[in-house]
Specification:
By secondary structure, this protein is an alpha/beta fold. It has helices spanning 3-20, 23-40, 55-66, 104-118, 134-137, 147-160, 164-172, 181-186, 219-228, 237-247, 273-286, 302-319, 348-359, 391-397, 402-407, 411-418; strands at residues 45-51, 72-79, 92-97, 124-130, 190-196, 265-271, 290-298, 328-334, 366-372, 384-388, 421-422, 433-439. It has two domains: 3-17 and 274-439, glycerate kinase, domain 1; 22-140 and 175-217 and 254-271, Glycerate kinase, MOFRL-like N-terminal domain (Rossmann fold, 3-Layer(aba) Sandwich), CATH 3.40.50.10180. α12 links the parallel β7 and β8 (328-334).
Length: 445
């Protein structure tokens, strides 16, 4: 295959993964169960709360399945730019807000969600549609914490390289909706959450900070995260006061397993990264590659993972014999982190792609894609990037220094110069990131 043909194939494989985790289809699959619960319990109304990057298509699908048989009202909250012209009737409020750092719009929407839930009782079914990004979007600071405090601590943790689990451990203990507290707010209404997973292992307590699931983390654990990244002296004083008060028992913990609020709540994972990687593997196989999806739990520093992938590619290509013409395809899923030290612009996927490109400079027969399934990579409009062995050679010919861009965490602007950004626009789904690598045998191998 030519380099252009490999790039076309790798985009095809990525697109197949996205189709497999389409949020509308995933919600519709489980709506018969929602309707069965509604009828069997003799309930009178559905209160719908949809939040996250997939909130709009998830809500549209659910509302279409409910209407006109079931009275419903609710609130839809998604990231700026993700409504994309969708129209809802007057029974549903639609809001856009900030991500990954919460903003006032998310705060205002969260207050409306809490008001809606306060109006429910045993006759109402609360239907939560949860997708990745929900933790930042649904922002309801705990008493004693301002929105600015939450913005500060979120920003510090994001730049420190903290994992999503660590970030959420802190956020859950600074919130009135996270860590099971949304289910607590809905109690005693009957509740069902349909959840699009964007975390490794599909852990209910981590996705969107587990708003309707028991929370195993603690105030003490949140303090330990801040200590790990040397942030206790940098976060706002109000944050440390709340966490220390909670750790001492002066504030109630988040609801744990066995709390009666969860007797009324059912949490269902409707799609996740494993489904996406498997669909990508099947499509790669259809295209004639020997396709493997060895892991969907990839985590760690993005540039180091990119270098590790490159080492594996070199070893594989040196052994590969072109038994099926188009070589091999490896598909990985997960979510890495970036420890920001420079002042550039980029995300974990473009940073990984740049590190990979540097490590395979000059190699033939290798193409690599790293992208977010939500269509956005960090604070950029790109999903990620596609690179090959010629990427760095071409960049150097243009007078670019890839090492300098990587040192500045400026991978987005590097690939903007080279033309290697993958821009999909908001996809409506969010099941972490995908890395896809195509490897063809070299002449004589």
């Amino acid at each position: 295959m030519t380099p252009a043909e490999r790039r076309s194939a790798i985009v095809d494989i990525f697109s197949s993964a996205l189709r497999a985790v389409d949020p509308s289809h995933s919600v519709r699959k489980y709506m018969p169960h929602v309707l069965d619960v509604y009828r069997e319990r003799g309930l009178t109304e559905v209160a719908l709360v949809s939040f996250g990057k997939g909130a709009v298509p998830m809500a549209k699908a659910a509302i279409e399945e409910l209407s006109p048989r079931v009275p419903a009202r609710g609130i839809v909250l998604t990231k700026y730019g993700h409504v994309q012209g969708a129209v809802f009737d007057g029974s549903f409020e639609v809001h856009e807000a900030g991500h990954p750092v919460p903003d006032e719009a998310g705060h205002a929407a969260a207050e409306k969600v809490l008001k809606l839930l306060s109006e429910t009782d045993e006759t109402v079914l609360v239907l939560c549609l949860i997708s990745g990004g929900g933790s930042a979007l649904l922002a309801a600071p705990a008493a004693g914490i301002s929105l600015g405090d939450k913005q500060d601590v979120t920003g510090l943790l994001l730049k420190s390289g903290a994992t999503i689990d660590e970030l959420n451990t802190v956020r859950k203990h600074l919130s009135r909706v996270k860590g099971g507290r949304l289910a607590q707010a809905a109690y005693p209404a009957r509740g069902i959450s349909l959840i699009l997973s964007d975390v490794i292992g599909d852990r209910l307590d981590v996705i969107a900070s587990g708003p309707t699931a028991p929370d195993p983390s603690t105030y003490a654990g949140a303090i330990a995260v801040l200590e790990k990244y040397d942030l206790t002296g940098r976060v706002p004083a109000g944050v440390m006061k709340v966490l220390r008060d909670g750790a001492s028992g002066a504030l109630p913990e988040t609801p744990k397993n066995g709390d009666p609020v969860f007797n009324n709540f059912e949490n269902i994972i409707i799609a996740g990264n494993q489904k996406a990687t498997e669909a990508a593997r099947e499509r790669a196989d259809e295209l004639g590659f020997i396709a493997l999806a060895p892991a969907n739990n990839v985590q760690g520093e993005a540039r180091k993972i990119g270098e590790r992938y490159a080492s594996a590619v070199k070893a594989t290509q040196s052994r590969l014999k072109a038994t099926r013409g188009q070589g091999m395809c490896f598909i990985y899923g997960g979510e890495t982190t970036v420890t920001v030290k420079g002042d550039g612009k980029g995300g974990r996927n473009t940073e990984m792609a740049l590190a990979f490109a540097l490590a395979v400079e000059g190699m033939e027969g290798v193409t690599f894609l790293s992208a977010g399934t939500d269509g956005t990579d960090g604070p950029t409009d790109a999903a990620g990037a596609i690179v090959d062995g010629a990427t760095i050679t071409t960049a150097r010919a243009k007078g670019l220094s890839p090492e300098d861009y990587l040192d500045r965490n400026d991978s987005y602007n590097f690939f903007k110069e080279t033309g290697d950004l993958l821009i999909t626009g908001p996809t409506g789904t969010n099941v972490m990131d995908l890395q896809i690598v195509l490897i063809e045998a070299r002449d004589g191998s």
